[in-house]
Amino acid sequence: MGKVISLINWKGGVGKSTLTLHLGVGLQKNTNKRVLIVDLDPQCNLSFLALGVESYFESVYESDIATLKDVFDNYFNEKDIDGSSIVHEKLVNDSPSSVFDKIDMILSHQDLVLMDLKLARSQREGKDHKEVTRNEIEKLSILKTLLDQVKDDYEYVLLDCPPNVNTVTQNAFYASDYFVVPVKPDFLSTTGISLIVNYMDRFNADFESMHNYAEFPTPYIHTEFGGIIFNMVDEYKGEPKATHLETMQTVTTQHAGKTFDKYITNGDGIAVAASVNLPVYSFNYLSRSRDNAAKQSIYFNELTEEFIERIV
Ligand SMILES: Nc1ncnc2c1ncn2[C@@H]1O[C@H](COP(=O)(O)OP(=O)(O)OP(=O)(O)O)[C@@H](O)[C@H]1O
Ligand SMILES: [Mg+2]
Questions:
Q1: How far, in Å, CA of 44 to CA of 34, rounded?
Q2: Into how many domains does the chain fold?
Q3: What is the CATH number of the domain that holds 288?
């Protein structure tokens, strides 16, 4: 059965989208099973990274292929959604001239930026408070309803969340078996981790009591904390540099058992690969920073192995 994992951090620029793409590729290569990656962010960074900006605009604005926006639009129009029309095969670049056969994708749309507000404002009427709560649960489960249709075609489904915990992110959390928090190993980036984890605990508690109160036909299943992944680690002689190591050790003490041992280094490989819409695994096709991209792909391989062990 497909495992659904959200990459969540309300802090921007920590590597949620980069990790979603690279873990997606790593998991596909490691297991040789199908993987689905989902872009939930109106910034569309994962979509751009995976396809390239031009190809994205051509697909969505010219060829009119479906995106996550259609999923939420259908909710407002009270139409059912056909999962297979939203999931796209063969979009994610493997090289300048080929795509991954076994990595599928759900694209985001810039108009999703308005969706949070629209969702927050919409309140379907109900004959009593129980029914109103049931409607609220339905609003939270828009994404889950879609993923339930398709997730068994995949070994892993990775959800790249926007840098907030609004309704779209809550939809991701609600649909997930696990949430994982990417962080940069600096003081300011790590001070917020406990707050995020507390927030997620509260979502679990709130969603469960909503289910119980509304006598929802299915129980709410808690989303487990899958762990903290350090990204953009600076190394010195093959080890995290002293200030990063110190921060990583502090976080490891604070969140015992929850920090990944493997991490991703800070390096040009990722940025250079991103600039030509490729993952670092495709380092052979890069015109520069090839060695760094190759090194980062090894780190991603190791991270993927640990991910497979932890997310079971
Ligand atoms: N390990 C790394 N080394 C170097 N650059 C990196 C690394 N990881 C990510 N980046 C770069 O940092 C920037 C932010 O990464 P990314 O977009 O993945 O973060 P994000 O958490 O998804 O951001 P947002 O919150 O805006 O969605 C990008 O330009 C990306 O290429
Ligand atoms: Mg992102």
A1: 22
A2: 1
A3: 3.40.50.300
In which band, very low, low, confident or very high, does the pLDDT at 120 lie, cut at 50, 70 and 90? confident
Q: Which atom of ligand 1 is nearest to the CA of 160?
A: 22
45 lines ligand 1 (CB under 6 A): yes
Residue 271 beta carbon below 6 angstroms from any ligand 1 atom = yes
Task: With a cut of 90, say whether residue 187 has pLDDT above it.
Answer: no
* CB 274 less than 6 A from any atom of ligand 1: yes
Site to substitute for ligand 1 among 7, 9, 17, 233, most atoms within 8 A of C-beta? 17
Q: Taking 90 as the threshold, does the pLDDT of residue 86 lie above it?
A: yes
User: What is the pLDDT, as a whole number, of residue 122?
Assistant: 85
Q: What is the rounded average pLDDT for all residues in the chain?
A: 96
Round to whole Å and give the CA distance between 183 and 185: 6
Q: SS3 of 219, please?
A: coil
Range of the domain at 136: 3-310
Q: Is residue 88 within 8 Å of 104, Cβ to Cβ? A: yes
Residue 191: pLDDT band by 50, 70, 90 thresholds?
A: confident
C-alpha of residue 46 to centroid of ligand 2, in Å: 7
261-282 average pLDDT score: 98
pLDDT of residue 1: 78
Query: Best mutation site among 39, 184, 270 for ligand 1, i.e. most ligand atoms within 8 A of its Cβ?
Result: 270
Instruction: Looking at the CA of 12, name the nearest ligand.
Output: 1
Whether ligand 1 lies within 6 angstroms of the CB of 269 is answered as no
Q: What is the pTM of this model?
A: 0.98
Nearest-angstrom CA–CA distance, 265 and 234 = 6
